[in-house]
């Protein structure tokens, strides 16, 4: 990259979420937020919440860059001023992000949750006298302990001019109501279906696949784009065939288990199992399969387990995953799961 090559420079910039183009379904949220800012009415605490894969973080990182940028336009940060340059380098004196390691420029060693000491540091940081804008981001804010949440409340209750606190949460129902009541939720959750679909079609280049992926992702646009690349995605029909041959006694659980251990790791197999079984339940209830590219209804026929049976099985599945987390061998868990599948 040279300073004289604006095209290359643009590409490098757009690969960083701070300077990436606004996602098409976030126009309204962006306009609302920037208008509030220009009117001096942007609340101190802002919450980006909603299910995973709708672009909350993409929005927040753009907003972070924009709030800090000293040469911003209504569309986004400039990418060139000292503030934007600091962001690119991954060290900005006026930005604090928790848990540590969750900056877009960090290379993936994110801490699992935010500690109470860190919230206290954040509190001090928000009180430090400084000029201009300061931004604090709490990623996965729903993982805060009660103690940390209470410490955070103090910060939220004492807004300072120029200080912005941005909370990100995939599970907002786990946030304390006292916190939720002190932050303004960004309107990121309602995504117009046509906008979502055209985005996914554009990324995947196939309308049928895009419709399927968007449906299986429950409308989470970014998740839908990634779905076809998941290891389990093209194994859905194979899963059904295996299950049916187990049920009909045409195959032994242990041999099927051995086979699948070479195909998917257990976590992916569990995701796939849950997805297809929920679909089998749908078919049993006469709702029609969501997997429009497989003949689920024809394959399973009338003999499907009841919702209660499937729910019990899925609860067991959770227990199996917990056991694996506690050092039960993956092979044992796989074998156990196949025995249960054969009897479902
Ligand atoms: Zn800038």
List the helices and strands and how they pair.
Blueprint: H1 6-14, H2 27-38, E1 45-49, H3 56-68, H4 82-89, E2 95-98, H5 116-127, E3 134-138, H6 146-157, E4 163-169, H7 177-180, E5 184-185, H8 193-204, H9 207-216, H10 221-226, H11 236-247, H12 253-261, H13 266-284, H14 296-300, H15 307-325, H16 330-342
Parallel strand pairs: 1-4, 1-5, 2-3, 3-4
Helix pairs in contact: 5-6, 8-9, 12-16, 13-15, 15-16
The structure holds zinc ion.
| CATH H-level superfamily of the largest domain | P-loop containing nucleotide triphosphate hydrolases
**Tally of distinct domains:** 3
What is the global morphology?
elongated
Going by CATH, the architecture of the largest domain would be 3-Layer(aba) Sandwich
* Count of helix runs: 16
Counting helices, strands and paired strands, the structural category is: alpha/beta
Extract low-pLDDT stretches.
none
Radius of gyration: 24 Å
Overview of the molecule:
There is one protein chain. This protein has 344 residues and is an alpha/beta fold. The chain has three domains: 6-185, Rossmann fold, CATH 3.40.50.300; 193-225; 233-342. The chain has 16 helices and five strands. It is elongated, with a radius of gyration of 24 Å. It binds zinc ion. Residues 69-71, 77-78, 80-81, 83-84 line the site of zinc ion.
